[in-house]
């Protein structure tokens, strides 16, 4: 995977940027929404889109202040961060949630739950659809007492950050779950992992990160911050950036959507559209393919020429996954605006999942793209709903579905793909590049080895 790093990414930290004022640019999605004012046609601009609030808010302590801040942190009450909490520190510290300056205080939490947006001091509105909060229990609340700052530490007790100007307020879990997921049914993965057994209080405040989050998994070089991505896009002279969020292996149908999007942007008058291939790198549910294997598979997709490395930037998005459908897809889109993307590809049932109790999808498959076209604070982002791709048996390749010859197409579901890989069977030629499919087979073989008591080979990084 070292080859992918050298070919597709520049990981040096850029010097501070100024972000030029950008004219609003819009794209009218092909949706029949008569009750909503449609967006005007896209206007071409050579500048990157402004981040929310006008600048990226990074929350790192200056090198010259680290020693004194660390000394101060050691004197403060300590809160131990969970794995997911640490991922949110990562998200906040790099400015993905700009203009947030830390874990949400109550006013920000309520605006997020009820309006999916935050109103700034100047009266403008930015999108914020998922709560970024830190839960504490009664004992931790008691230890904090009347203090105004706390130290945040990892599971080894090492200081990560200081949270100052703190506010502690009630963690109404039922309301949070109902408004974020639209249901309180048991079995929601993120809820089970991070909310159900969390404390009954939330603590918000300004975040100062002393030691930036690192994972030491040989993938840190792919975790580019919004500032680093903007630097990369500027280096490549991108006049448009289109983002594709994914948490699954890339098949040729995905590749068709991405290459067709670039063609559409060229037809619109852009000269150098660049793809941000942005796999989610935070928490995912147990049956999703792990990040290390997905990154290895993405490498093969680029090596096999399915996507063009000259016009593709591969990076890891550090956010945890909620599986909250139309609510969460707004967060995915908003974060990419902060990274410089002015186009966002959205497909069927984005950020969705099966209902945890009933045999149906939890969300309407079309609601994600409809919500994105109307979401408060996302007016500057151009939404690109993609066509349905399926396997065309007459051409032996992935193609856009033609309802006039529906009998010629084969839909290969994720379940079918996993079954084939587990059984070491090949999919139809043209469904996925051979190198990428081999990685998927190796992954499921490693699971079978573990179940049979053999120690699987670690995935090469």
Automatic annotation (TrEMBL):
Keywords carried by this UniProt record: ATP-binding, Chloroplast, Nucleotide-binding, Nucleotidyltransferase, Plastid, Transferase, Transit peptide
Pathway(s) of this molecule: Sulfur metabolism; hydrogen sulfide biosynthesis; sulfite from sulfate: step 1/3
Subcellular location: Plastid, Chloroplast
Catalysed reactions, semicolon-separated: sulfate + ATP + H(+) = adenosine 5'-phosphosulfate + diphosphate
The protein, known as: sulfate adenylyltransferase
One GO MF term attached to the UniProt entry: sulfate adenylyltransferase (ATP) activity
Major localization class: plastid
Residues covered by the ATP-sulfurylase PUA-like domain: 49-211
Sulphate adenylyltransferase catalytic domain location: 221-443
Family: Belongs to the sulfate adenylyltransferase family.
Pfam families the UniProt entry points to: ATP-sulfurylase, PUA_2
Organism for this UniProt entry: Buddleja alternifolia
GO cellular component: chloroplast
EC number: 2.7.7.4
CDD domains reported in the protein's UniProt record: ATPS
NCBIfam families (alphabetical): sopT
């Amino acid at each position: 995977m070292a080859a992918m790093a050298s070919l597709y990414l520049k990981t040096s930290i850029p010097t501070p940027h100024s972000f030029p004022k950008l004219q609003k640019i819009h794209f009218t999605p092909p949706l029949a929404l008569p009750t909503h004012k449609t967006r005007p046609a896209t206007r071409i601009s050579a500048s990157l889109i402004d981040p929310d609030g006008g600048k990226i808010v990074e929350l790192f302590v200056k090198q010259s202040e680290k020693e004194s801040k660390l000394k101060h942190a050691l004197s403060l009450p300590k809160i131990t961060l969970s794995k997911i909490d640490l991922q949110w520190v990562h998200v906040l510290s790099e400015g993905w949630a700009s203009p947030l300056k830390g874990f949400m205080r109550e006013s920000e939490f309520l605006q997020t739950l009820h309006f999916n947006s935050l109103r700034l001091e100047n009266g403008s509105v930015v999108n914020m659809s998922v709560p970024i909060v830190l839960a504490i229990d009664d004992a931790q609340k008691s230890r904090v007492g009347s203090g105004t700052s706390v130290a945040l530490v990892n599971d080894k007790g090492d200081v990560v950050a200081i949270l100052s100007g703190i506010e502690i307020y009630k963690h109404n879990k039922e309301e949070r779950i109902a408004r974020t997921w639209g249901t309180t049914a048991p079995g929601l993965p993120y809820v089970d992992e991070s909310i159900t057994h969390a404390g009954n209080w939330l603590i918000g405040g300004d975040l100062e990160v002393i030691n930036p989050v690192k994972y030491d998994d040989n993938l840190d070089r792919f975790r580019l911050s919004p500032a680093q991505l903007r630097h990369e896009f500027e280096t490549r002279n991108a006049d448009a950036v289109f983002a594709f969020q994914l948490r699954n292996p890339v098949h040729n149908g995905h590749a068709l959507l991405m290459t067709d999007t670039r063609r559409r942007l060229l037809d619109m008058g852009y000269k150098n559209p660049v793809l941000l291939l942005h796999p989610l790198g935070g928490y995912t549910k147990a049956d999703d393919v792990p990040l290390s294997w997905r990154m290895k598979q993405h490498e093969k997709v680029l090596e096999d020429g399915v996507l063009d490395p000259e016009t593709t930037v591969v990076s890891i998005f550090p956010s945890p996954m909620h599986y909250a459908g139309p609510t969460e897809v707004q967060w995915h889109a908003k974060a990419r605006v902060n990274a410089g993307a002015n186009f966002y590809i959205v497909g069927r049932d984005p950020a969705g999942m099966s209902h945890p109790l009933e045999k149906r999808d939890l969300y309407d498959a079309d609601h994600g793209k409809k919500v994105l076209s109307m979401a408060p604070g996302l007016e500057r982002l151009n939404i690109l709903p993609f066509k349905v791709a399926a396997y065309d048996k007459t051409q032996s390749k992935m193609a856009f579905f033609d309802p006039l010859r529906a009998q010629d197409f084969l839909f290969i579901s994720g379940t079918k793909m996993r079954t084939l890989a587990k059984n070491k069977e090949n999919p139809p030629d043209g469904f996925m590049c051979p190198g990428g499919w081999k990685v998927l087979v190796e992954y499921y073989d490693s699971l079978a080895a573990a179940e049979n008591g053999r120690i699987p080979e670690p995935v090469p990084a």
